[in-house]
Amino acid sequence: MLVAFIAGAMCPAYFAQERLRGFGRLVLAKLAYRPPPGMDEETAMEEASDE
Question: Where are the domains of the chain?
């Protein structure tokens, strides 16, 4: 754990943020998505992305 902290402290903040965002996107992309009952997947995704 100490090695990870030291390695993280030496890398630039913008680089670390982009790497963590990429990891989060990768993990979330692996999750299965089920639309609410009565909606098809495409419509549900459009409504979820509109804010």
Answer: 1-48
